[in-house]
Amino acid sequence: MFIQQFFVSGLAHSSYLLGGTSTCAIVDPRRDIELYLDAAASMGMKITHILQTHLHADFVSGHLDLAEATGAVIVAPRSADCQFSHLDVAEGDSFQIDDLEIRVLETPGHTPEHITYVVVDHGRGPEPAVIFCGDTLFVGDVGRPDLFPGMALELAAKLYGSLHEKLMALPPFCEVYPAHGAGSLCGRAMGAKRTSTVGYEKLYNGALAIGDRQRFITSLTTDMPAAPDHFSRCSDINRRGPALVRTLPVPAPLPPQRFREAMAESDTVVLDVRGYAAFGGQHVPGSYHIDLGGNFATFAGWVLPPDRKILLVAEQAHEASEAAVALHRVGLDQVIGYLEGGMFEWAKAGFGTDHVPQLSAPELNQRISCGDGLVLVDVRSVGEFGAAHVEGAIHIPAPQLRTRHTELDPDRDIALVCSTGHRSSLAASILKRNGFSRVWNVAGGMTGFNAAGFAPECPLCVVPHGPRFMGR
Q: Is pLDDT at 456 greater than 90 in this prediction?
């Protein structure tokens, strides 16, 4: 048996190649599939199966693209009612990949249709060796059951049974390969380690340690992090079958005049993917800003209207291509073009620009200290704000400013702060789109403010591999 993991940062998504001797399966594939084709070819293996543990909510899957490229059969939960050609499986079903026997366990809880693939390597022994458990069990956490309106209590109860009665009954040495790690919003407190074992999780997983069913249900249905908007769309896209990537628009380089004409269309938005310092210096008026170096795909799926065409502003053409791939991962498929030559050419064409001044940590501290009327808005998550914040700051998470901007006075000076400056720049762009002109971004965020000694260290901001924007 051979296993290779593929990890997408930002989405914190793990997919896998499960190989036998000459054939292999891809488990929970992402939408850009070339890396699977390359990995299988390098091992001299043929991809014969595509295994879906569930209908993913946080990303659009590449199962149809991979099936078209390889001829592999898609295996999916019977209860998912998938509307494309596939092999549906349920509890007790099994199939072979060379010497590997893959058994199916129904493990609902994170989603109603969730299954786990239990792998027995008969080349070595008869015991279950590996599970691909999707979003049922994570390293240090379990899947959230609250993504389906009105079903949280029911799914939490089912999740308890899936974990304690099924997965924890497997041998303690059985390896655990989940679909997500730290940084994903499919759970609450995942560990940074990307694999584990049943035995280790049984001993040290905080959610599994809640042995009482009712306390488990209560814990998993209260104080959960907010779910991004695209979570409500992607599951159904994956059920119906996503559009093949080869059929999507290829972003075209548009000189400034053509870009300006395209952005004037009512069904089009502009997304600037540069760093926040560059965006602050000058940007196309009305642009959204989501830094490609931050948690780009998650926040794009969260805040961008899914029915709009997207025009990109990037430093280089390859960054526009990279952004388009990430947008496709969250179902934003109408990426039609990018500004050729970037803001340099836009300015040379004589077109107007907008600006977001940047405040350093000392500048923010000085303005707070002198009491000049600056309004500080902390746009981090509830957990981050609760862990540590500047006294007097107003708390509105960045995505909520799309509607809650009405709670702020556009005639006041407003500074926006997050952990580093990424989300606060997104928040600034949202306010600018809603007519606010006196807006500042705090460069370095609370991380810089704490490092300068102006506030106690935030326990969530300083973990380099932690879940950054959704910790409790």
A: no
Neighbours of 226 (CB within 10 A): 15
135-153 pLDDT tens trace: 999 999 999 999 999 999 9
* Alpha carbons 426 and 285: distance in angstroms, whole number: 14
Residue 404 has pLDDT above 80, yes or no: yes
Nearest alpha carbon to residue 367 among 406, 417, 410: 417
Ramachandran angles phi, psi of 48, nearest 5°: -110, -20
Determine the straight-line distance between the first and last CA of the chain, rounded to whole angstroms: 38
Label residue 460 by pLDDT band (50, 70, 90): low
- For residue 289, give the 3-state DSSP assignment: strand
Nearest-Å Rg of the Cα atoms of the chain is 23
Under 8 Å between Cβ of 327 and 335: yes
Tell me the C-alpha distance between 153 and 218, whole Å: 8
Mean pLDDT of 96-100: 97
Q: Percent of the chain beyond pLDDT 70?
A: 97
Answer whether residue 441 shows pLDDT above 90.
yes
Token representation of residue 383: 């957990």
Query: Between β-strands 128-134 and 94-97, what pairing exists: parallel, antiparallel or unpaired?
Result: unpaired
At 212, phi and psi to the nearest 5? Answer: -80, 125
Q: Which pLDDT band holds residue 470 (cuts at 50, 70, 90)?
A: very low
Q: Number of helices (H) and strands (E) in the chain: give both, helices first.
A: 16, 24
How high is the pLDDT of residue 189? 85
Which residues, including other chains, have CB under 8 Å from residue 328's CB and lie 6 or more apart?
31, 32, 60, 245, 248, 335
> DSSP states of 386-426 as a string?
HH---TT-EE--GGGHHHHGGGS-TTS-EEEE-SSSHHHHH
> pTM of the prediction?
0.95
Sign of the four-CA dihedral 239, 240, 246, 249: negative
Which residue intervals of 412-471 are DSSP H helices?
A: 422-433, 445-451
Q: Would you say 332 and 301 are in contact if contact means Cβ atoms under 8 Å apart?
A: yes
Q: What b/e readout covers 256-281, taking b as 16+ CB neighbours within 10 angstroms?
A: beebbebbeeeeebbbbbbbbebbbe
40 close to 24: Cβ distance less than 8 angstroms: yes
Residues 322/8, Cβ–Cβ less than 8 Å: no
Q: By three-state DSSP, how is residue 337 classified?
A: strand
